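Contributing new records

If you add data, match the layout below exactly. Sequence lines come first and carry their own label; structure lines follow with theirs. Keep one chain per record. Anything else will be rejected by the validation script.
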Amino acid sequence: MTTARTPVIAITGATGHVGRAVASRLHDAGLATRLIVRDASRAPSWADDVAVTSYGDRQAAPVALAGVDVLFMVSAAEAADRLAQHQAFIDSAAQAGVRHVIYTSFAGAGPDSVFTYGRTHGATEAHLVASGMTTTILRDSFYLDFLPELAVDGIISGPAGPTGGSVGAVARADVVRSASAVLTDLAAGTSAHDGAVYTMTGPEALSLTDVARILTEFGSPTTYRAESIEQAYASRAHYGAPAWEVDGWVSTYTSIASGALDVVTDDVRALTGREPMSFADLLAARG
């Protein structure tokens, strides 16, 4: 009688927030992982299988992914060529013989996404499907962890509508727990997640007025101030950022205003067995 081989799991972004936390959880659970990094010196000290490549390196990436069965692909840092990086890495994974890819996408990803980066995520998903590899897509809403960063000098300013629209933002920790659950299931041989698309949200949809109120309740006096789209571009011009980046900043707000992110799902609880964190939970945990 032969024993089934344990799948080899590779994790990208292993020096970032999500990838590193997922890698740590799987390590603590006793699962062997290969960490894919750009700089080996930044890999966790416990890692004993580290491969170095960037997403766009068509020579190094197939070598780094050789022998990998399951790939956790954290989306690349925002860049003008982000889609090209994703497509190159997906091609490298298929070339290396990867069987299954779990990809961190964005809620409502697709060519018509109001959030400009959501269009890149949609095109990445399409490239994954065309690759022939089996996929699981985690479509993350905006991170709850990111919301406090919207406030500058106690004011959240943007074109999200009079009260700040509504967004079912999700805690980064819940995305980590969800991804870890999917990877653990795949390591055990389940096919339950094959072709699945999960939308990762928190337990409630918040307006930016709600966000400001909750931040105030936790000791950071904050207000929301609505801007027109023209005002939003003008107020951000002094940063001197490239047009694609400013479009991303402004469309963060317009995507919330559109109602497309006014979505709350049960997917985090279904994957992890626990209720997702609220914004108040997150701030309380930070202390």
